[in-house]
Amino acid sequence: MTTRDVVIVGGNRIPFARSGGKYLKASNQDMLTATIDGLVARFGLQGERLGEVAAGAVIKHARDFNLTREAVLGSHLAPQTPAYDVQQACGTGLETAILVANKIALGQIEAGIAAGTDTTSDAPLAVNDDLRRTLMELNYAKTPQQRLKALTKVRPNQLAPEQPQNSEPRTGLSMGEHMALTAKEWGITREAQDELTLRSHQNLAAAYDRGFFDDLVTPYLGLTRDQNLRADTSLEKLAKLKPAYDKGNPDATMTAGNSTPLTDGASAVLLSTREWAAERNLPVLARFVDAETAAVDYVNGEEGLLMAPAYAVPRLLARNGLSLQDFDYYEIHEAFASTVLSTLAAWESEEFCKGRLGLDAPLGSIDRSRLNVNGSSLAAGHPFAATGGRIVASLAKQLHEKGSGRGLISICAAGGQGVVAILEATK
Amino acid sequence: MTDTLTKLTNQGLGKTVAVRLGLPRPALLRRYAEGQDLLDGPAAVGSIGDGPVAASATAIIAASGANVVAATADSTYADKLAAVVYDASGARTLDQLEALRATLGPAVKALGKNGRVIVIGTPPAELDDPEAAATQQALEGITRSIGKELRAGGTANLLWVAGEAQGDSAVLAAPLRFFLSSRSAYVSGQPVLVREGEIPDVDDWHHPLAGEVAVITGAARGIGAEIAKVFARAGAKVIVVDIPAAGESLAKVANGIGATALQLDVTAADAGERIAAAVAQVGDRLDVIVHNAGITRDKMFVNTDESRWGSVLDVNLQSQLRMNKVLLDPSVAGGLRDGGRIVSVASISGIGGNRGQSNYAASKAGVIGLVRSLSQELADRRITVNAVAPGFIETEMTAKIPLATREVGRRLNSLLQGGQPVDVGEAIAFFAEPGSAGVTGQVLRVCGQSQLGA
């Protein structure tokens, strides 16, 4: 069976806002709708029926059971465009692109939108389990006596709402605490993390200044650039920050600066066949080549929570007959600066590559000047499900600007998962 | 955004009180809606002598389905007239103007609401004889005065039809129709010159821009957004452009009219190239570029610093020169085709100057200079270059002017009200029409015959 080329036509995102910031009153549906509409406006897709829209949010209200479809109905796309929700933690955005790309490659659809949105400002608060059980009992009560009996079980302490947790259900450790363990294992220094952070901010600011995002970002609710971006930060300023994780330890390295903050935002990418794009005179930025996902057993401590991409990439390289050095751009999601550095260290380690990956030799090092060249999550922020779309669209444009070459995307996700992909410039 | 006085004095008690007190009562102007009849009543057509243009005018009006009656000195009119067209282009002596007075007077008296007076003349510069030139120049004084005397939303305008074009009804149709129609609701007391031009057949007067690609800069809000809507209504494929920071409202404008949004600072060095690239995406050629993007940085001249001076000139004028250079290069894919249109937005500030706006007035006067020069340069390529000079237009920007100043700006014109952004859009779309091929190098004021800058 032959598959068809899948191309990236373009993307759109709203500037990412810090949690509790400019998008305090925006819901996931609001942001996703605005982001899809920005894409529609950019490519004149008003009234167009697309094959599908796949999107998701990591933190989602129960009422948003059909989030993506509702966003499509609220957008200027044809209401006949089907949609579904996807959730794979921080891998959601890239996973939606893989799903849409695969359907296009198989000939099931001609074009689709892959998207993601997340807000921690409009996060759902649930009633706690005790109160919920009582209320359910009340709901099913048939007689006034039964109702009264159910109500007597309500206690003041049951009124405390249950908040969504930023921790792994199976370990009880937060993501940062997990990452701190991995960073320690790989001996990642504070200085190296701060340097990576500084470069992320500098690269993102420079990209904005040269207009790189003019056709990738549509302002939203008065925000025109990512709110987390600190164009004037410095190593000195970053060095002053106190550790945010592993706080008691004098050697703790991870701070609020070299970790991504909670962020609100949404992104979307338009994928299609070459023919679909050509028929509409739309640009083709890059080809979506291949993708791979991996997962690691972090529960039993065999591997770090965010190390799955280190496993996914070699499998993807092998399938495509490529080495780690065969790329012009590397987009490694900066969940934490130490995530990127631990992953790179692992690929350079003979012990890791032979012992854990079962390879003959280490994957080796990369040219660091090709890493996250237009900034990444440390500067832009990281609205979980929106990060994949941000990276796919930006990398596709980088490749289009260069006119040749290929790029590697690596995104770690909660639950010990990793989603990676290869894009290639189109001729 | 109708102002309160206009609303109040046109209905119920407010109307009664306003009439008793003799308050000014701005008329509710008839404006265009898709498919609207050209005129909502009969038109009277008269001329001095044979009137070389009168026959064309009669044919054009009749073709629209409107009833045409003859205007003579002893005509009486059974119905209220929607328009009177008077061809004075044959007048060569001052004595002949008496015929105009005798005929036009009763016809103007018979005009109904939103009546139209259109006088047709021969450009005085074409005439060697001083009395002939004086006679024709007199038409401007007559038309402008009638404009000031008309009430109930009436307008009076003057079409100078060049000698070469006087026998050509094709070249007259689009300009005449514009000034007769409700699309020129806020245009009064203005002369426009019509020359010879290559006019394609027009099948659909309601969608004259069907299939054309038009770029509108500064289209995220206000006048620019309304220009974009008028172009979309007229059938054009529209690319709306505004600075990246205005992207949110730009996307809304685009999605509202099925346009493509291009986030772009017009002062960027590669603005022309990026517009051409966007055009190449929706079609292979650009038919119309509308330079509407503009900023104000008001200060008294003596307090205007280098940044206020430079930024206004760069955005409002220099950027147009840079973009035109690229778009007019025949080798650029997505550039302006031969026979295309350039329309710039000037301002009455650029004609009359304005206190606190030396930088803005400089840029807008510059636009007028640019239009006059470029129109000659591009005549060989049949590209027309024109400008619209808006007066007081009801926008978010003018809503911020202090009340007293705003009221003066709003009322100091023959129509006693501010214009709507759509009025500017209609005038720009008129210049863009294929039928306007004979109109180039013109600056049309959309100001309700404002006394400012006159």
TrEMBL record, chain A:
Residues annotated as domain Thiolase N-terminal: 6-274
EC number, UniProt record: 2.3.1.9
Pfam families listed in its UniProt record: Thiolase_C, Thiolase_N
Enzyme class per UniProt: transferase
Limits of the Thiolase C-terminal domain: 283-424
SUPFAM superfamilies assigned to the protein according to its UniProt record, in alphabetical order: Thiolase-like (SSF53901)
Stored CDD domains: thiolase (cd00751)
Keyword field: Acyltransferase, Transferase
Record GO terms (molecular function): acetyl-CoA C-acetyltransferase activity
InterPro entries: 3-ketoacyl-CoA_Thiolase, Thiolase, Thiolase-like, Thiolase_C, Thiolase_N
Family according to the record: Belongs to the thiolase-like superfamily. Thiolase family.
Protein name: Acetyl-CoA C-acetyltransferase
Lineage: Bacteria, Bacillati, Actinomycetota, Actinomycetes, Micrococcales
TrEMBL record, chain B:
Major enzyme class: oxidoreductase
Molecular function (Gene Ontology), one example: 3-oxoacyl-[acyl-carrier-protein] reductase (NADPH) activity
Source species, domain of life: Bacteria
UniProt domain Ketoreductase: residue ranges: 212-396
Record family assignment: Belongs to the short-chain dehydrogenases/reductases (SDR) family.
Keyword annotations: Oxidoreductase
Protein name, per record: 3-oxoacyl-ACP reductase
Organism of derivation: Luteipulveratus flavus
Lineage of the organism: Bacteria, Bacillati, Actinomycetota, Actinomycetes, Micrococcales
E.C. no: 1.1.1.100
